[in-house]
Amino acid sequence: MPAKTINGKELGQKLREAMTGEVTQLREEGIVPHLTVIIVGDNPASKSYVNGKKKASAQTGISSDVIEMPASVSQEELLKKIEELNNEKAVHGILVQLPLPDHINEQLVIESISPYKDVDGFHPVNIGKMMTGDDAFLPCTPYGIITMLHSYNIPIAGKHAVVLGRSNIVGKPVGQLLLKENATVTYCHSKTENLFEYTRSADILIAAIGKPNMISGEHIKDGAVIIDVGINRKEDGSLTGDVDFSSAAEKAAYITPVPKGVGPMTITMLLQNTIKAAKGLSHLGG
């Protein structure tokens, strides 16, 4: 029996509709949730992501603006702009679109954003709180993945979750969130020997390794849940994930497509974090 498709686009839209009510309530209390996105340079993919975030913000009633800076901007200028936004009470969330030009230290930029406005969930303070189970802004893609699993009533506790990839943005944090949900977590990466032995033992497989169609039906167990985080552009311009959808869907119980899978959920959780930031700052009198 073919797998059920986890439609991130539909789920994200449903969640954003619910957020609209939250935003309306905040506006009635005199709080207008506001997200500022900084984009450096003219990377087409980054511009596309930023436009998507702006459009989604408008749909939910969240105010947003985009600050465009040239690729030649100095690190000092960028840090100065972030400091201004940290001190701007009307701004609740700050996001610096990655990647940044080579002459700018990405980690330094991430650490310069106030943890209270870090709606991307990348600041070491928020990562540390996530690791210890404290309330924090969660990284948006892992947050979206966990939300997907919950929304489809997919059991996590006691299951063997295998994470392909160990990036700070997806792999490492999603493993921690799965661990918090009482899964048994195995991390796999480019140095893992006998990789497919692990993928075939996974009840939940998170593919975030950046290699198109690397995982096919023969590499997964019957009834597995497959979350494909990969976004790879083929020669014809179309997108494909890290998983060969057609063959994997013949064996899996649930699977996410690419596109319309994890991507829309990432933007949705960014908006959720922005609303949370607006509530937190108002509570703190910020």
Structure description:
- The protein has 286 residues and is an alpha/beta fold.
- The protein has two domains: 30-114, Rossmann fold, CATH 3.40.50; 140-263, 3-Layer(aba) Sandwich (Rossmann fold).
- It is built from ten helices and eleven strands.
- The protein has helices spanning 8-28, 44-60, 75-86, 106-112, 124-132, 140-151, 171-180, 195-199, 245-249, 262-284; strands at residues 4-5, 34-40, 63-69, 93-96, 160-164, 184-188, 204-207, 225-228, 232-233, 239-240, 254-255.
- The strands form three sheets. The protein has a six-stranded parallel sheet. It has a three-stranded parallel sheet with strand order 3-2-4, with helices on both faces. It has a two-stranded antiparallel sheet with strand order 9-10.
- A hairpin with a 5-residue loop joins strand 9 and strand 10 (239-240).
- The model has no long low-confidence stretch (mean pLDDT 95).
- It catalyses: (6R)-5,10-methenyltetrahydrofolate + H2O = (6R)-10-formyltetrahydrofolate + H(+); (6R)-5,10-methylene-5,6,7,8-tetrahydrofolate + NADP(+) = (6R)-5,10-methenyltetrahydrofolate + NADPH.
- Homodimer.
- Residues 6-120 form the Tetrahydrofolate dehydrogenase/cyclohydrolase catalytic domain.
- Catalyzes the oxidation of 5,10-methylenetetrahydrofolate to 5,10-methenyltetrahydrofolate and then the hydrolysis of 5,10-methenyltetrahydrofolate to 10-formyltetrahydrofolate.
- This is Bifunctional protein FolD.
